[in-house]
Amino acid sequence: MKKIRTAVVGLNMGLQHAYAFHSAERADLRWVVDLDEEKAAKLAGELGCKYTSDWLSIMDDIDAVSICTPHHLHADQSILALKAGKHVLLEKPLANTEEDCLRVIKAAEENNTILMMAYVIRFLPIIRKLKDIIITEEFGKPFNANCWIEGFIPPMPGSWLSRKETLGGGVLFSHGCHYIDLLVWLLGKPVKVSTLGTRTGTEWMEGEGTAHSTMLFESGALGYLETSWGMQFAERRALMHIHTPKALLIVSSDLTTLEAVTEKGRQTLMTHNSHTSPGSFVSGEIEHFLDCIEFGKKPETDGHDALKSLRAIWAMYEVIKC
Ligand SMILES: NC(=O)c1ccc[n+]([C@@H]2O[C@H](COP(=O)([O-])OP(=O)(O)OC[C@H]3O[C@@H](n4cnc5c(N)ncnc54)[C@H](O)[C@@H]3O)[C@@H](O)[C@H]2O)c1
Predict the structure, then answer these.
(1) From the CA of 61, how far away is ligand 1's center (Å)?
(2) Most informative mutation of 69, 163, 179 for ligand 1 (most atoms within 8 A of CB)
(3) 135-163 pLDDT, tens per residue?
(4) From CA 10, how far away is CA 185, in angstroms rounded?
(5) Sign (positive/negative) of CA torsion 24, 26, 28, 34?
(6) Which SUPFAM superfamilies does its entry note (predicted)?
(7) What phi and psi values does residue 270 have, to the nearest 5 degrees?
(8) To 5 degrees, how large is the angle CA 269–CA 272–CA 276?
(9) Closest C-alpha to ligand 1, atom 30
(10) For 218-265, how does the pLDDT look when each residue is reduced to its tens digit (9 = 90+)?
(11) What is the rounded distance in angstroms from the CA atom of residue 289 to the CA atom of residue 322?
(12) For ligand 1, atom 25, which residue shows the shortest CA distance?
């Protein structure tokens, strides 16, 4: 089989994509792209590919591209690539407005190209095992899910991360979208949502830097997410607790262990470390993208799927004041 010619644009989170394409048998990583040419040149030297700062100049030499740039660039860059007939793996979130999301989805559909969202957590073995347990109702139906993302990033006043217009919102939209996506994927359709956010503690951000969000699902289950970029001294208890009538399911904060607490005590259901080498954390996601290209499959995380959780977040931002 002819290898799939790939490129990665934006080389911070995109570094992971580049390493994973480099290791994937079906992929031929041709280009790494960044406005910072020095950064691109260094990586290209390491991975044995070409580099440029002008991603539009490489279109004739690729079949697929990972777009890992700031959020306000996602829509226009993806549309350009999709219209050029390239398959796109896009870092989350899809785009900053619903209108832009719909434009990207339309471009993929009209050009018969694959648009996949890089919701990496969904492709981790631990999380796939959790989904299986929930689908098969091995421990019964979940009725409560708590998720704690007590993160920290150093203040970056003036950066694209600090501005609502470029980030698309606050920490809930930017980082929380991973976990709202996860809750929706695990628990189904949300019917009522809310959030409270604060800038206190992360005053360098225009949007909220800490948020507490709640969701009621059609199934009757409740979901809760705490997200923050201001918690420098967090003591992370777990990433996720899911309660069912017969068990408490626990995903460890480093995403390596899935446990169940039942009448029989505490048991480990699975351990798997996805952080073993550069790029290994995103390898499940990258292989799914390559599968979709090779076999013409619809990505599990396509544009329509991504819109479900973004719509829930936009609804959350409609805060009711008392
Ligand atoms: N999945 C995850 O866990 C995860 C983690 C971090 C970031 N992300 C996502 O990755 C994306 C990028 O975030 P980041 O933290 O890497 O941002 P960043 O600002 O640290 O890096 C972005 C890179 O893109 C480059 N760039 C910007 N415009 C460009 C252009 N037109 N052409 C080429 N290069 C360009 C910049 O020079 C920079 O090196 C965002 O969508 C973010 O949400 C995902």
Answers:
(1) 22
(2) 69
(3) 999 999 999 999 999 999 999 999 999 99
(4) 28
(5) negative
(6) Glyceraldehyde-3-phosphate dehydrogenase-like, C-terminal domain, NAD(P)-binding Rossmann-fold domains
(7) -165, 145
(8) 170
(9) 35
(10) 999 999 999 999 999 999 889 999 999 999 999 999 999 999 999 999
(11) 46
(12) 10
Superfamily covering domain 4-120+279-302? NAD(P)-binding Rossmann-like Domain (3.40.50.720)
Q: Residue 125: which residues within 8 A CB-CB, separation 6 or more?
A: 270, 272, 274, 284
The residue count for the chain? 322
Tell whether ligand 1 has an atom less than 6 A from the beta carbon of residue 153: no
Q: Kindly report the CA angle at 14 between 25 and 202, in degrees rounded to 5?
A: 150
pLDDT category at 1 given cuts 50, 70, 90 is confident
Q: Whose CA is nearest to atom 20 of ligand 1?
A: 12
Cα(11) to ligand 1 centroid in Å equals 6
H or E stretch including 195?
Answer: strand 190-198
d(CA 264, CA 200): 43
> Quick one: average pLDDT of 269-284?
96
Rounded CA-CA distance 34/41 in Å is 9
Which of 35, 22, 25, 20 has its CA nearest to residue 3? 25
Residue type, 256: T
Q: Which of 16, 17, 34, 280 to mutate for ligand 1's pocket (most ligand atoms within 8 Å of CB)? A: 34
**Looking at ligand 1, which residue's alpha carbon is closest to its atom 9?**
91
Q: What residue ranges of the chain are covered by domains with CATH 3.30.360.10?
A: 125-273
Cβ of 151 closer than 6 Å to ligand 1, yes or no, is no
